[in-house]
From TrEMBL:
SUPFAM superfamilies membership: Acyl-CoA N-acyltransferases (Nat) (SSF55729)
Gene name per UniProt: mshD_1
A Pfam family annotated for this UniProt entry: Acetyltransf_1
InterPro entries recorded: Acyl_CoA_acyltransferase, Bact_Acetyltransf, GNAT_dom
Name of the molecule in the record: Mycothiol acetyltransferase
Domain of life: Bacteria
Enzyme class, UniProt record, top EC level: transferase
Organism of derivation: Nitratireductor thuwali
PROSITE patterns recorded: GNAT (PS51186)
Length: 259
């Protein structure tokens, strides 16, 4: 599952971006079983925040016993035990899960863009929102998120430790696009980039994206990165047109119905 051609020969790069991702989108609780990072977040159900993340290709011992140790932690917060497998995971983990009948879930692509002044020269200069509640309301409107998730989402966004810029674009007083840019040293990560249904294809997403990148560039970021679902053709087209290129992929696994 997934194309990992480049990633297999550049594990330090993957570790760099995996670490940036953990800091930028922090789980409420993290514990380690060997080099497996078990990330859990009772208040928000995203798989990125509720998954086992193997971080060393050499660590594949006692897979079944370690799954059994992790399962009660997931069940305690009403989650299904889930693996997030990047190229840092030992291949034998995926083979074990195949044998046990675990399902393959969504695949995502991690993309990177060298961030130079020329990339953002024409971007609209925008000051990020200071009002977290207003940004959350805009994000829920644009994405169409379930209102039951509002509190957990607000806690998540508010817990980001690196400097985060919250961006929205409005038209006729209504939010039409959003983006979060997390500035972490030389790296700028993009999250929650979206355009409201019915307003897509009009350039709003690109404007929000470039404004966020300009903000990060002015703070010294030299590399931008993001994660996007592999089947999101519209988003991939936008990111590639800006200059983002794939560096690796990851996917999720959960037990089959028989388990």
């Amino acid at each position: 599952m997934g194309v990992q051609h480049e990633a297999q020969v550049n594990l330090p790069t993957i570790r760099r971006f995996e670490g940036a991702g953990f800091r930028a989108w922090p789980a409420a609780n993290v514990h380690y079983d060997g080099t497996w990072a078990v990330r859990l977040t009772a208040g928000y159900p995203a798989k990125r925040l509720n998954s086992i993340n193997p971080l060393d290709p050499g660590d594949a011992r006692n897979i079944d016993l370690r799954i059994d140790r992790a399962r009660p932690h997931f069940e305690a917060i009403g989650r299904t035990v889930t693996f997030r497998l990047s190229p840092l995971a030992a291949p034998s983990i995926g083979l074990f899960l195949d044998k046990e009948g675990w399902a393959h879930l969504s695949e995502s692509i991690v993309m990177r863009l060298p961030l130079s002044d020329s990339v953002v020269d024409d971007a609209m200069h925008q000051i990020p929102l200071k009002d977290l509640g207003r940004f959350v309301s805009a994000a829920f409107s644009v994405h169409g998120y379930d209102e039951a998730l509002r509190s957990g989402f607000k806690d998540l966004v508010g817990s980001i430790k690196p400097e985060a810029g919250h961006f929205i674009l409005e038209q006729d007083g209504q939010p039409v696009a959003t983006a979060i840019c997390v500035h972490d040293g030389a790296i700028a990560g993009l999250f929650e980039v979206a355009t409201a249904k019915g307003m897509r294809g009009k350039g709003f997403g690109r404007r929000a994206l470039l404004s966020a990148l300009k903000w990060a560039r002015l703070r010294g970021a030299t590399v931008a990165w993001l994660q996007v679902e592999a089947d999101n053709a519209a988003a991939l087209g936008l990111y590639r047109s800006v200059g983002f290129r794939e560096i690796y992929r990851y996917h999720y696994r959960q037990p089959g119905e028989s388990r």
